[in-house]
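hey can u check if this looks right to u? its 585 residues, i copy pasted from the old doc so theres a chance i mangled smth
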Amino acid sequence: MRSTVLLILLIGLLGACRPASDPAARFRALLDESWAFLLQEDPLTATYVGVHTYDDRLPSMTPADLARRDAFWARVEQQLETIDPARLPEDDRITYDIFRHWLTHQRAVYRFRGYLIPITSDGGFHLRLGRLPEWLTLRTEAAYRNYLARLEAVPTYMAQHIALMREGLRQGITQPKVVLQDYTATIAGYIVADPAQSVFFRPFQELPAMMPDSVRQELRAAALQVIQERVIPAYRDFLRFMETEYIPNARTTTALSAIPDGRAYYEYLVRYYTTLDLRPEEVHEIGRQEVARIRAEMDSVMRSTGFQGSFQEFLQFLRTDPRFYARSADELLREAAWIAKQMDGRLPALFHVRTLPRQPYGVAPVPPHLQPRYTSGRYILAPPESRTGAYYWVNPYPLNGRPLYVLEALTLHEAVPGHHLQHAMRQERTDVHPFRRWVSFSAFGEGWALYAEKLGKEVGFYTDPYREFGRLTYEMWRACRLVVDTGLHALGWTRQQAIDYMAAHTALSLHEITTEVDRYISWPGQALAYKMGELTILRLRREAERRLGSRFDLRDFHEVVLRQGDLPLGTLQRLVEAYIEQTAK
């Protein structure tokens, strides 16, 4: 009898120790399962993050595969609902918040059929594929043969996306025709007469010296053949589809609300990209208030220059006076690099040196085939195994549309202390689940980068009134986005109305305004992230300064903001409040 009782007690104790009864263990197991599934289903992401199990394949984008993935995420979502985040350790709770927000988006994109539009006005699946050679660090014959297998799969990958876009045409779920002007240049750049000049051949230009000559020759010959016979024809097929089917038959409306379920989709995207529970009309009003506030500051700076005309005349002066523009692409890039290097030396005033990332970054022009439809600059991440650093891309096209007076703000946003610190610090967190290192949120990242522009004022930038006006015009640009994006997709604005509003309130060139408006049309909701994220970070900083007084250390605050990686803004607020309470003790 005693032995039976002991056995029952032992079984009970073992049952209590099972992972199923421990919320943290259950959550971690679910996260591990989800991460493994994600990498298996998206081999490009797997390669990027340094997992090479699937280096011989590309993602499958058939309707059946998309449905199967959604069914998996639906099951994960149901299991996640059974875990109370309040019962998790703090680090797991942070991960829970991040994963929950990311998972909700995966389900929403499928529900609203967002996969039928795999391109934006300046991006797309074919460009992601085109960056694969930059990610690779090939050292063995097997690795090169895996890459050749991937190149063999390019026609299937292209054909599957074309099929999805063709279905989008049938359902009326497409990009607007107006934002696809000159888009084919992003495809044509991959169609070269000599396969040895293809970006896909780059990994074969310097094969490992220890590899036998016969193997190197065989690999190069195989690469030239597959690029000539498979890759280039696949891009040519995509170009033909865009020219003859997609662009001619794309919708003539611009609002996301014009497509099936578009209004509900846009309302969801507002919540996703801001990570806040807001309606489009609320964001629109916040934008108008910010526009009025920033305009008053711009008027003050304009008067400080001694300019005697009106605000619109001042904008015209800035857009047309040659003194504000570089005379060559090299001059523009050198100025951007000089600004970046100046900020590098001032980072210790803003951050504890121990928190700064090890990964370097460079400054380079936007690739020529992307320049006409591309924004003024962008941060390009580097995988951890890459033989190059990250890059701050600067767009020199057209030179008379890239004013120097905004270059300080652009550089601080895209390089340091903006996106480079945000992304590199997140990727170097080896003590967290890999999911945390690779998931990003626009409201956090773009909010931080816009906040970073303003940080320049605290360490000696914007001493010239024209550059301070440039900073303000960039802030105004992000405030205008709140008005314009919601206006375009929820309030019935036309494309020209959006262009005119941006032109009336910012000193951006008309070329840049047009490409930006097309970006907002083609990527609904994302433009809202910048200002809403910045406003949240500024509010949290002011609260910390008010409550901590002399105990406030800006470097501590920045470490709290960045050290956990990208976060939903509600999670960030909880962490800052905990930091304030702990520091105030």
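Residues 24-112 form one domain.
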